[in-house]
């Protein structure tokens, strides 16, 4: 027959005429091979097999029956052959990813090794002679590990193999009990010979000594009992091929061409003599010795040591082809299963154990000096410490899996009652309490200094967590310790419930909001009678603070603003400035109001106020309208969280009186510009003071001074107002102080500190009393 | 990694000693101080280590690299070298001229003598070191997966328990020692050269990644991990002409990129033969099967390139 067959499909062999009588010798070839050789090993005899693989399996055992000599050649084409590894690598990656969630080479190597070891085990059970082929000329100690693993595996499987062999007819009892018909011999074949003039025989013999020595020391072969395979005692078992490697076809062709082109090239005569004539060395010849021995007396390599008297020689028989076929088929079913051989997975097992060992250490590092509860940033910091430790000590392919586990464990530890609430306060500080129910109050632990409505009292302010606390409750509380509560004040309209179950209005961000805006713009016209029509709702209140875009008819439950009258205008002396007793906390020489001269046109029957700068032009007649001038003292007061207060003289300048209490600035700049809502306080770098109070000392004249504050806490943000009935009129000859909100919250959005925030111009106004 | 620190004591001698032969750097797990006298207060050394299986040509490759400056002396040496090789080659065919003793002596790193080959033992034991005149420290490591190394460990129980560990099974002690040395080189080298004589042994690739896994990390747990990973250069000695074809070379690079996907070693730092249009880059270098009959000297110049890139 010419055909080759692939285990376990013996179809072509069944037609062999000597199926029931041929006594066969089985020779198997295995090993590693370079990419170029397409998986061909031991070429001098392997030529019966074609290069390249025929099946799509990762491991193929191809067979060929030499009918004339009754020899079966088996050729293992495995993942140790470079061409097959390259072919299957991507599918291996995929498989490892699916089954083991990891595609590290070391994981894939487990598969490579395991699949090879199984095939090796099979060959150890169905061969007489095994040829281990090496691509180089040195023995690879890696084989020792394979032999060890296969040895263990073989002992484990022996019972199972014997069992299935019992079911095969015609096998001898020894064959069945041993699981195989002989202890095979292993021949070490080396594809290359070292360059130079060496005594190849000597190289071979030395290599034999070394291999034998190591195999014996590692107890892979023993002189007693049964071992996985045997080394012939008195025959050569190492063969170094001196044939030129024939894999470099291109190189051979080019070299031939060059040679032919040289003078007399084609005629070149090769040296007729060699130190090692090739004709005398041929692997087949070498192999023939072993085959012959198998045919005649069989192998008895294990008991040959004279010192050990063996009770019985190792079993050896030449199987009948049919028996071999059936037994091989049976053993194939037992052995060739998918699955890892754990004794070969050293790298991954190491990695696993190492990670398992380091994981608790890393977790302990995370838990070291752990506070009872802590914030996300602290969790991250601790986690990164734990990861650094894990990074430094854990190893290998399962590293990533355990990193994920470590992260999850740390997170679980944190979330198991150690989480800090971390809810941000109105000033952006996290709550320091452990995670709590929503009905419990937050606490960031920060306490600021803040000034009351009238400006007389400085008290501690807890970091507020809602607008009501910030803009209303705090001032209510501090007013009890101050005269604020007793002062005359103008209250802004707030929601008055008519029923008990009042609720927050639900606001829709749709066209309604737009129509509201246009509605408002109408309101800006002088004819403001429509305001009378609108009745504020008494069942629903405005959830946020009042802005120009708030829906009409809704009022907040409390006012975020306050407007109090400190008393008569005489309370303020422009020579002395604001007194420390009435207005504590002012920075040096900033405690002055600014004089603002306003010309009032008396006859014009308009509500509109015209303001002219009075500088140097006082009394200048403008048209027919009679006019007069009044002086109003105004001030925009800023307050920082440490309780520092100061006035601005211009949007970009702190008011500064020169020695002798001379204030050179006038109030025009602050009255006629947008004022910043936040201004750097001088007390500390990066600390912002917030515009908190507007001071107005009204003149004793038939005019109404008015206040109409509009605050835009961020560019594009809604404009906050104190009341819908604007502007607010103040009484004559009095000292009025308007306190602005501490925080700005519209509907649901909170506007934190923003340097673009401003108080829009047109706050201060003066109208004639009609 | 500053090897230079070891040499800072030598202040008296400003004259730079040049080396003509490698010295032992590490033997039986003991670091030797033979290098000290050659290392002045210079600091910018390039450290190149080489590993590989037995007989693949590690020392030969380093010898080629060591000769990268052309002085008259070296020209002569290289020339003689070639002549000696010529004789080798001829001797294969004509006579039984023994390996030129002179030549072996001239080599900076010990290469296998005929005797070594015949007794199947390795020429380099432990790690040999040589410093070139342009401050390249070359480290030549004993082979891994070598039967000779394992045999030696098997024979001397003492050595095994000292170098490796008493508790490691015999069959693994050779591998463990190889891993130790390779991981050590990975920690101290800028460039790690891996020599193979065919394409390719999956076990070599696996071995390197195991060594990388075992490489010690230098970090105190408080700090960020400051880990060093050398450039990896795969050299294929005895490459065949087919390997040089663009198609084949591209395949080689692609495979290595796949196999080394997870490594942190610097594998594509332009040290290889590849130029930009040959696919995914990988540091692979091919050295053709040496055959003086056809005058294959070009690789010498390529070796120079490697050093220049560095």
TrEMBL record, chain A:
Keywords: Nonsense-mediated mRNA decay
Pfam families linked to this entry: Smg8_Smg9
GO biological process: nuclear-transcribed mRNA catabolic process, nonsense-mediated decay
PANTHER family: AMPLIFIED IN BREAST CANCER 2-RELATED (PTHR13091), NONSENSE-MEDIATED MRNA DECAY FACTOR SMG8 (PTHR13091:SF0)
Family: Belongs to the SMG8 family.
Role according to the record: Involved in nonsense-mediated decay (NMD) of mRNAs containing premature stop codons.
UniProt-recorded name of the protein: Nonsense-mediated mRNA decay factor SMG8
Source organism (scientific name): Tribolium castaneum (Red flour beetle)
Recorded name of the encoding gene: AUGUSTUS-3.0.2_13382
